[in-house]
Amino acid sequence: MEAVFILAGLFALLFVGVPVAFALAGLGWILLELGGFSPLMVAQGMLSSTDNFVLLAVPLFLLMSNILLQGGVGRDLFEAVQVWVGHWPGGLAVATILSCGIFAAISGSSVATAATIGTVAIPEMSKRGYPRPFVLGLLAAGGTLGILIPPSIPMIVYGFITEESVIALFLAGIGPGLTLIALFCAYAMLYARFAGGYTPSPKADWDHRRRASIRALPSIALAAVVVMGIYAGIFTPTEASAIGVVVALAITVLLLRTLSWSAFVAAVYQAMVTTVTILLIVAGAKVFGKAITLYRLPQDLSALIIQTFTEPFLFIIVVAGVLVLMGLVLEALSMMLIMVPVLAPSLLPLGIDPIWFGVFFVIMVECALITPPVGLNLYVIQAVSRAPMGEVARGVWPFLAMMLVTVVLIYLVPGIALYLPFNF
Asked: d(Cα 125, Cα 142) in Å, to the nearest integer?
């Protein structure tokens, strides 16, 4: 019964508009006071949550992605992919998805991916006659690849919460990420084939392909340096994020010469704002998590789940349903910080691999990013395109369905997610 009151109190605070970080920390503080625990645990919990080497990667990856965004890297990346596949059926849509996938391997951020590629792709696809809802839905969904394809900020946070290997989580995201890209590309080509109404792009000549590819080569090299350096054990994800910032500055300032001082200041400011938001939520969640642990909420809920759901697939179905509903009112990181500490104790007794569950959870978080009314990517694409929210929301439903199909696929074939972590 205590669990019901605690969760009801949390959602009541969120529904009346209390910011997530303050709702979590405030309720955690109240619970500690009511339980007779020392209020010093609040300060200790908040300090310990942010004093972590792993979390240092978050602001650095955010800074790197914002430098690339301000430096116009997305434009070069999109053009390089477009000259190779733009003449295919639905070629611009395919180029958009592939560009999102490549930029995701650089940035680790869904918002940066959607904003960077959307700024370039939306005008180009609209000019070619692609239906607006399709274009906007494609970009909103394509942006979510930023948190599945490594490096991924939510996977870093998940690893911090569960104390699982961040590198293993990154490896586990590759297979599902490529699966999702393949599904999106197949749908785009079928949509273009049967819906029609767009003007195909002409096939680019070899000289144009060469020039566009050379201009995008530094950005692709950055992705290779970050990803391969992590997997080869040359540096940790946190060190990779710092190296990524330096290389991003070298690309945009020295090679491309597209990053002005004012743009750099804007990149630093935006990275700072997002970092503060994330770390405040992490700190609030730590206080709340400490309080509910002392009240034995995770342990009791875990015991209830194990008694109620003896089969893993029933547990996964229920969790997926809960996350879809939570995604209607909560943003992605809040869902992870609220739910993972509660659900994690149930995984091993049910025989569910924590690495696999991390990938499953991130895909469900991707769904939350494009479900109205709180889907963050919907607002990003709306801001970039200046389109009505309803028009953006109409276009995302097929892609949302494909994300859920991917969840089914990784459940039926766990090796899609787990092959690389256990065989690399």
From this structure: 14
